[in-house]
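TICKET #2291
ISSUE: user wants both folds in one file
ATTACHMENT 1:
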Amino acid sequence: MKKILLSLVLVIAGLVAMAQEETALSERGEMVRKNYSLFFIQDVNKVLISDEELAIILDEDTFDTYCSGRRKYKIGNTMAIGAWAGLGGGIAIGVPGFFILREHMKDSLGGLGCIMFMAGSAFFIAGTVMIPVGYIHKNAGVRKINSVVNDYNQNIRKTAFHYQFAPSVMPVNIPQSQGHMAYGMTFSVNF
């Protein structure tokens, strides 16, 4: 009899722990994206989701999509920043080189002006070409991350069902009970 009661208590404790874990998952709230990071909205706060937690929450394909999107976002952002720097550097080197070349075409400084103008032009052209490429990569990453967020939020709404075990105490409404209480376990399923 003791073994049966002990087994029953262990099963109930396990079910209570599982129910609390399910409830914790549904209480995390809606997932949102900021740059390439994901957050849960809880009340008015944003709680950063770590990669380890994402690997647990999301299935393998969805997590791979998130990692791919994050990688594209970072590459595109780096390319865009580098392209803007190249564009600015090209202007900063090329414009003075042009004026030096124009003023000192026959002097020895004309060669320096020509080199500065050519280098500035190369940086300017490379920067101009790389800016849209960087933003295309960045936007592709944003689309992938947004698809992960939208899938998660839709799935949470579809599967926002949880169950809970809790001890309960109820008054007994039988006249002979003389104010006694009934003790038991409550099982609730919320859809």
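ATTACHMENT 2:
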Amino acid sequence: MLDNKLLRAERLITGFFVQPQRYPPGPFDRSQLAMVYSKITQKYDYPTFNQLPNGAIMLKPATQSHVQLQELLVQVNEEIEIHFDATKQKVLDIFQIITNHFQLDTFAHFGVKLIARWPVSGDNQASRFLEDKYFRISDTSFAVLGPGRDASGMRFHFNRADSKCDLHIEPQFQDLSKLHIDVDIQYPGAFKGLKEIGSKMQNAYDYLFNEVRSFLESPA
């Protein structure tokens, strides 16, 4: 069984591409990357800074969180330590610091991924929960795939007017008592300014806690 109080969003990964200001496009300036790292770490804890051949990465190893600027990509991968809204605001602030520093205002292809865990209580572990509820496949049929199967999951793809969404629902392979849920929404096309991306991050969170939760709690 699922307890809706135990569904928890654990990680937010989001980013966009920068529209090049010159051709051929070049990487971020290395000295400027060090300066923007200094600005970000005045507010947020990323104790490790590594220059890359075509960019840089700022790391918080304790939570595997990082800020990456590489060629034309700006991406933040952040653990949701307390609540989604606080993490979303932190990510928006980091994006604002970066875009202000480099004087960027035109972007392309915004993406947001939300990773969640949901424990399955009782003896009905995550894999068995999915198989019993949705698959209706006999052990004999499963056996055609070969021996050693200890987990099974589902993937859905949605092609919408303004976005493409991939939804993965599967057991957490390191702990088969939990469901691993991955919501990945991609918004293709160019956009100007950052005013819309907060609502797009919120859309992923709302989709997880409304449609996805309702789907898993509803009768098969």
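RESOLUTION: both attachments delivered.
EXTRA DETAIL ON ATTACHMENT 2: The longest strand covers residues 175-192.
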